[in-house]
Amino acid sequence: MPLHSREDEGSILTLVYDCHDQKSHILILDATDLVEQARIQLSQVIPLTFHGSWVGKTPPDPLRD
After folding, report:
1. In 1-65, which ranges are continuous DSSP H helix?
2. What single-letter DSSP state applies at residue 59?
3. If we measure between CA atoms, which residue out of 44, 1, 55 comes closest to residue 21?
4. What does the pLDDT look like over 29-52, one tens digit per residue?
5. Residue 54 near residue 60 (C-beta atoms within 8 A)
6. DSSP label at residue 30
7. Residues 17/41, Cβ–Cβ less than 8 Å
8. Which pLDDT does position 55 carry in this prediction?
9. Higher-confidence residue: 40 or 8?
10. With 27 labelled, which of 12, 17, 37, 55 sits at a CA distance of 20 to 30 A?
11. Please, which residues have CB within 8 angstroms of residue 9's CB and are 6 or more apart in sequence?
């Protein structure tokens, strides 16, 4: 028996960085309507590149950049 009866039932967790307050938090959203369910304040800043970073088609040249 599945835990959820609909495909979009569940939660979305995302890391958020507030540049004005210079703080990070984890935001938990309802997957159905994206309404905030909870917010977990973190004791330290987590940089946006912690989990990944965007790279264009051509990787940067370390000798030039």
Report:
1. none
2. P
3. 44
4. 999 999 999 999 999 988 776 566
5. no
6. E
7. no
8. 64
9. 40
10. 55
11. 31, 32
Residues composing the chain: 65
Angle of CA points 45, 26, 35, to nearest 5°: 145
Query: Cα–Cα distance between 25 and 5 in angstroms, integer?
Result: 30
> Global pTM?
0.63
Q: Say if CB 35 and CB 29 are below 8 A apart.
A: yes
Closest-CA residue to 40 (of 16, 5, 62): 16
Tokens 């970073």, located at residue:
53
Structure tokens at 31: 């997957």
Encoded tokens for 42: 């973190």
- Distance in angstroms (rounded) separating the CA atoms of residues 41 and 24: 7
